[in-house]
Amino acid sequence: MDNICFFIVVVTLVLLKCTTLCSGINFFNSSIDEDALLAFKATITSDPDGILANNWYANNASVCYWIGVSCGIKHQRVTALNLSGFHLRGTIAPHLGNLTFLRSLDISFNNFTGILPDELSNLRRLKEINVGCNSFAGEIPSWLGTLHELQHIHLNNNTFTGNIPQSLFNNTSKLLTLDMGYNFLGGNVPQEIGKCIDLEDLRLSFNHFNGNIPSEIGSLVNLKILYLSNNSFGGGIPKQFGNLTSLNILYLDDNKLTGELPQELSNLAYLEIFSIGNNTLIFC
Ligand SMILES: *[C@@H]1O[C@H](CO)[C@@H](O)[C@H](O)[C@H]1NC(C)=O
Ligand SMILES: *[C@@H]1O[C@H](CO)[C@@H](O)[C@H](O)[C@H]1NC(C)=O
Ligand SMILES: *[C@@H]1O[C@H](CO)[C@@H](O)[C@H](O)[C@H]1NC(C)=O
Ligand SMILES: *[C@@H]1O[C@H](CO)[C@@H](O)[C@H](O)[C@H]1NC(C)=O
Ligand SMILES: *[C@@H]1O[C@H](CO)[C@@H](O)[C@H](O)[C@H]1NC(C)=O
Ligand SMILES: *[C@@H]1O[C@H](CO)[C@@H](O)[C@H](O)[C@H]1NC(C)=O
Ligand SMILES: *[C@@H]1O[C@H](CO)[C@@H](O)[C@H](O)[C@H]1NC(C)=O
Ligand SMILES: *[C@@H]1O[C@H](CO)[C@@H](O)[C@H](O)[C@H]1NC(C)=O
Ligand SMILES: *[C@@H]1O[C@H](CO)[C@@H](O)[C@H](O)[C@H]1NC(C)=O
Ligand SMILES: *[C@@H]1O[C@H](CO)[C@@H](O)[C@H](O)[C@H]1NC(C)=O
Ligand SMILES: *[C@@H]1O[C@H](CO)[C@@H](O)[C@H](O)[C@H]1NC(C)=O
């Protein structure tokens, strides 16, 4: 009996302590995630396959069992959302920014419109964001540069406009993939891109970028894939590209590049695809 009382006291103390400690950050409160996902569902205007309509219900199974949702084992909070190719149409509710345990967000291959709301800047744990192949518009959000765990950013095949904000590279040193291809971006590519030293895959093709190709891209020595084609880049190919010795694929075609091919490019021993057509380069 004494033992049981002692046990109850200890358990109560632990629970009290946890409520005090944990409530501040709502660590175990998965109803925050349910509210966020239902608010997200509410701004979906078309769900032709009925995927969310038939799976995402309030006060039903835990959100962890909803289609496209994954949770952490210990805390049962939403850590991944993958709605890729669900044929959804609509806008992104700002409430998505309440999924603060989210590490991976993949809503690619849908028909989402509108902007990426600023509230998504609350997703401090985000390692991967894929919004590719939708109809998102507006500028590239500069808050992406404050999410310092980000490894993969896919913004490709949308209708983003404006310049790449310099602050995108403020604190994204862990980036491995940056895909902004097939948008309506323009202006110069910021030289700060050279700070993303781990970058392996950089795709900027099919935009309206102009000015010189920043020579700082030549310091991204882990690059395997580099797409810069179909823009309006001028000037010469930076000789620093000769330092990109891991490069497998290099697309520079359909620009306004001039001058000679730098001899340093002969260092690129692993190059499998090299496309430079439709420029005004001099071949000696
Ligand atoms: C959990 O969060 C909801 C808001 O989504 C709030 O209404 C509720 O009081 C919270 N519960 C606890 C135990 O903190
Ligand atoms: C959730 O709702 C669906 C449809 O109303 C129902 O078939 C299912 O049994 C419910 N699941 C739980 C766990 O309540
Ligand atoms: C999302 O699911 C699709 C398959 O439905 C898969 O190809 C893709 O890799 C997944 N995304 C992530 C980030 O895991
Ligand atoms: C987007 O909607 C159009 C119809 O307006 C459709 O043809 C297209 O397949 C949709 N794209 C995706 C990825 O669902
Ligand atoms: C979730 O986000 C919305 C909009 O950003 C906000 O109004 C709401 O208070 C948040 N809810 C919770 C439970 O944090
Ligand atoms: C992006 O759009 C282009 C042109 O429409 C298309 O060729 C390409 O396959 C698309 N990319 C993806 C990943 O679907
Ligand atoms: C990026 O850093 C610069 C200074 O280095 C600062 O002025 C700017 O506000 C930062 N931007 C963001 C989005 O944090
Ligand atoms: C950048 O991220 C690191 C963690 O990777 C953090 O310690 C640091 O405060 C951040 N710096 C800025 C300027 O946000
Ligand atoms: C992109 O490159 C292709 C292949 O050379 C070319 O035919 C096409 O006109 C270019 N498109 C744009 C939009 O620049
Ligand atoms: C990169 O290449 C340039 C010119 O080819 C050279 O001067 C420079 O030292 C190289 N940088 C690194 C980090 O290897
Ligand atoms: C050459 O590239 C430009 C884009 O810089 C494009 O507009 C044009 O159609 C391309 N010409 C050919 C013959 O591919």
TrEMBL record:
<keyword id="KW-1133">Transmembrane helix</keyword>
<dbReference type="InterPro" id="IPR003591">
    <property type="entry name" value="Leu-rich_rpt_typical-subtyp"/>
</dbReference>
<dbReference type="InterPro" id="IPR032675">
    <property type="entry name" value="LRR_dom_sf"/>
</dbReference>
<keyword id="KW-0067">ATP-binding</keyword>
<keyword id="KW-0547">Nucleotide-binding</keyword>
<dbReference type="GO" id="GO:0005886">
    <property type="term" value="C:plasma membrane"/>
</dbReference>
<keyword id="KW-0433">Leucine-rich repeat</keyword>
<keyword id="KW-0677">Repeat</keyword>
<feature type="signal peptide">
    <location>
        <begin position="1"/>
        <end position="24"/>
    </location>
</feature>
<dbReference type="Pfam" id="PF00560">
    <property type="entry name" value="LRR_1"/>
</dbReference>
<dbReference type="GO" id="GO:0005524">
    <property type="term" value="F:ATP binding"/>
</dbReference>
<keyword id="KW-0675">Receptor</keyword>
<feature type="domain" description="Leucine-rich repeat-containing N-terminal plant-type">
    <location>
        <begin position="33"/>
        <end position="71"/>
    </location>
</feature>
<protein>
    <recommendedName>
        <fullName>Leucine-rich repeat-containing N-terminal plant-type domain-containing protein</fullName>
    </recommendedName>
</protein>
<keyword id="KW-0325">Glycoprotein</keyword>
<keyword id="KW-1003">Cell membrane</keyword>
<dbReference type="InterPro" id="IPR052595">
    <property type="entry name" value="LRRC69/RLP"/>
</dbReference>
<dbReference type="Pfam" id="PF08263">
    <property type="entry name" value="LRRNT_2"/>
</dbReference>
<dbReference type="GO" id="GO:0051707">
    <property type="term" value="P:response to other organism"/>
</dbReference>
<dbReference type="InterPro" id="IPR001611">
    <property type="entry name" value="Leu-rich_rpt"/>
</dbReference>
<keyword id="KW-0732">Signal</keyword>
<keyword id="KW-0812">Transmembrane</keyword>
<dbReference type="Pfam" id="PF13855">
    <property type="entry name" value="LRR_8"/>
</dbReference>
<dbReference type="InterPro" id="IPR013210">
    <property type="entry name" value="LRR_N_plant-typ"/>
</dbReference>
<keyword id="KW-0472">Membrane</keyword>
<dbReference type="GO" id="GO:0006952">
    <property type="term" value="P:defense response"/>
</dbReference>
